[in-house]
Amino acid sequence: MSDPVVTRFAPSPTGFLHIGGARTALFNWLYARGRGGKFLLRIEDTDRARSTPEATEAILQGMRWLGLDWDGEPVSQIARAERHAEVAHELLAQGKAYKCFSTQDEIAAFREEARTEGRSTLFRSPWRDADPATHPDAPYVIRIKAPETGQTVINDRVQGDVTIGNDQLDDMVLLRGDGSPVYMLAVVVDDHDMGVTHVIRGDDHLNNAARQMMIYNALGWPVPVWAHIPLIHGPDGKKLSKRHGALGTKEYQTMGYPAAGMRNYLARLGWSHGDDEFFSDEQAQEWFDFDGIGRSPARFDFKKLDHLSGQHIATMSDADLLREIVDYLDTAGQPALTTGQHSQLKKAMYCLKDRARSFPELLEKGHFSLIQRPIELDEKALAALAKAPDGMLSELTAQLQSASWSRDNLEAALASIAEARGTKFGKLASPLRAALAGRTVTPSVFDMMLVLGRDETLNRLNDAANRA
Predict the structure, then answer these.
(1) Do 426 and 326 reside in the same domain of the chain?
(2) Which residue ranges does the UniProt annotation give for the motif 'KMSKS' region (predicted)?
């Protein structure tokens, strides 16, 4: 039996949860959940100048909105600094690392001379093999002893085998002069101690893998499975940036996309399963594997996101939809639904879900169920009402007084009025929409009547008739 899969997402809390980071988290979540493994969260907060509690909370909120649940408590990298330093000193004691007393000026001079002579500017420390008895009483860093010959091969599940000549690797610093660990060391120690078996991250980290493997190999620790995924580009093929629109997950929540639609779309950004476009979390977890990840950057496409979002809204349960809409309104800073509005929206949901690509679109369609008399009519509704045949609304109101409140009876009542007036029902529909919703783009008039009920429908028709 193979070891259980353990993946992790390790964001830096220096800002919001970027959409690219969200996709990385999703891929790790899918891979672990689909194999009964663990998905861990580590906050890489070693950059004390830029890391903030607010940014950490923003990341956690973004993860919660996307529904990417993690196992255990989030790990703080800075809280493990002593453990990182302990490992550096362990390597020092084993002769696999050394104290380097070279100053910044000396390193700069070395590189300048190398440039002048056309040699590699990778710093080669004169202290690598120095006798400890010659060590001065001066500040020092701890450097790992990089392999000097041969090659390092990164066996990557997405990029294939990537070979780097060891002459391209320098004796990387592990501990700075003030005793603080560098990022490269912290990542390796944390991944090892957390039992991470698969490192799934952006391909901008690919070169880091070779340097991190030096630490794994020096300590005799198993190297995790690498999977470096291409970055996300904008529609123009350039790296995703502010000019392409929203970058943070919260922005997509405030635009009113359902979390399931966002997960589905992000999963399809750079990964595929045949021709499948629309799928559930369960299917994604079952299908997701490295073989489906392409090597080329994925392009963000709002039209595809809108399309998938609409499909998810149409298939979501009313209860789930209402819960997400309540959260959306709160996140977007809009007024919360009253108890009455919540009840009416739930009642109307059956005729709102189709063809709504976002929550704002759904709420716009459901506007008729959320408003109270007297209804404010927009410009198009006023024009439509002005064109209503004389007495039509009053006649309809009289007929509906005694009508049985079912779709068939409502359709029959309206059809009879249209026939009596020698016109088609379509001619009556526009002023009816205006009377019932104050808008001209709405669900069908029959759906609105059924949702509103007899009394509210008749009251709105009376109001419109008096206005006309």
Answers:
(1) no
(2) 239-243
Say if residue 424 carries a ligand binding annotation: no
Encode burial over 46-81: b for 16+ CB neighbours within 10 A, e otherwise.
beeeebeeebbebbbbbbebbebebeeebbbbbebe
Active-site residue, from 38, 96, 239, 242: 242
CA angle 328, 69, 75 (to 5 degrees): 115
- Tell me if 276 is assigned to some domain: yes
Mean pLDDT of 330-359: 96
The answer to the question of residue 413 being in a domain is: yes
242 catalytic? Reply is yes
Structural domain boundaries enclosing 201: 80-229
Q: Is the pLDDT of residue 399 over 90?
A: no
Nearest residue to 366 via CA among 339, 343, 335, 382: 343
Model pTM greater than 0.85? yes
**Category of 134 on φ-ψ map: left (φ > 0), alpha (ψ -120 to 50) or beta:** alpha
Question: What tens digit of pLDDT does each residue of 23-76 get?
Answer: 999 999 999 999 999 999 999 998 888 888 999 999 999 999 999 999 999 999
Pairwise CA distance, residues 295 & 308, whole Å: 23
